[in-house]
Amino acid sequence: MRKNKTPNQPLFLFFIVLLVLTGISQERKNQFKFNPPSALRPIERIRTETQPPYPWPISAPEAQGLDSEIFEHAFHIAEHMPYLYSVLVTRNGYLIGERYFHFHTQDDSQSIHSVSKSILSALVGIAIDRAYIQSIHQRAMDFFPDHAETVVDQRFFEITIRQLLTMTAGLPPNESSPGFRNPYELEMLASPNWIEFIFSHPLDFNPGEEYHYSNADTHLLSAIITRATGMSTKDFADRYLFEPLNISVRDWEQDPEGYYTGGFRMYSTPRDMARFGDLYLHNGSIDGRRILSAQWIRDSIRFQVPADQFGYGYLWRLYNIFGYNCYFAWGYGGQFIMNIPELDMVVVTITLPNPVRLDSGLHADYIFKWMVHHLLSPIYSSLGEPPYCPLEASANKYENRSLTQVEYINNLKWQFNPRNSTVNVTRYRIYQLDHRIYDLTNNDWFLLDEVSAGTHEYWHPVQEVDQKYYYAITAVTDDNRESIAAVANAQYPQNNQ
Description:
alpha+beta, Beta-lactamase, Immunoglobulin-like, four-stranded antiparallel beta sheet, eight-stranded antiparallel beta sheet
């Protein structure tokens, strides 16, 4: 008798189990899927056909007392720097240098990251000028009575507007350790209510006690502007800052509650950024129109607290180059508005918003050093100021093996600056540092040695083979003036035997 053909039971059961698991997997995926609020958009390059960038009057560098060769040389170097999209220089109210790279144009906007914190500082100043906020000493919690019961740390009631402006409010910093994002901030950005999240977590420090860079500080400031004025932060900025300057913000993201992000996720063009910098050079009044009080600008760019290796004002960093007091807005990855009041000059750089690299913080350092070494220093030198630094310093490890021992040496090399030929450099100084270069002053350097002006190489025996060594080389003149430094570093792998 012929038997009926039945399906292969093991194979049949396998498909049944697979279908069940697929359904469970999809259900769990839907359960834990993160759906960002519709108000938030991914950070990306944005090209719009809205208001064009500010129409700067253009001038040759020579008409403003500078040599165009300096700019050509600096732009040639910038052209080969990765992730750098644009460089712009103004002087005396004229655009004297402008270059775009990697297919970008003056019409392209980019996320300017924390450069927008300095713009937020201006908005706070305008809100105080117009009496929406009483003063910098007003308590931040005055604007959040509905969150009084949310607060888990009573020290929140001590925080002032000034402490938020100087990053001394005591909120957890952006980084939990150098180079690593603080989980606190990541959780805040993923939460459905950022303000409530901030108040429901304790402070890390007493208000006013220490500087710690924090996006939460400036996001509270944005919410305060909205609550104090009855307008969104962007509407307030459009009315009292952007429209009077004839500039625009192409895009500005909001948190899930609708508050515009305080100090990040803002998009602008280089020409508009330079226009904002120029407002500060002219003490808040531009084209015959008062936009921001001169006193606010003086306070904003005056030393308020020490910040890393810089001074800090009201969301502006302070720095000194060859005796010139500069102040600048600094955004992640290398966005800069650098103001040099004595030269009536603004330098703007725009880079890739989010370099997908572990060393994206270093990339900002590279851009900063390019500005100092290849643009500002030659300008100062051409104006008869202190000597330009040595060029293209490098440091490489050298291993000397013998029958009895292995000796490790760092070989430092640098080049003299050909533009410095009129300055009598008599020697070079070689320093060792304890940390990565941010500040190029020599307050924390350890002097290793001095060598004659004709020497451009130095051998440094090292003791700890797994340590990263940082170096700075300066030129010294016959009258003992010391240039800004060329910097380099070398590191031995930990498994080096």
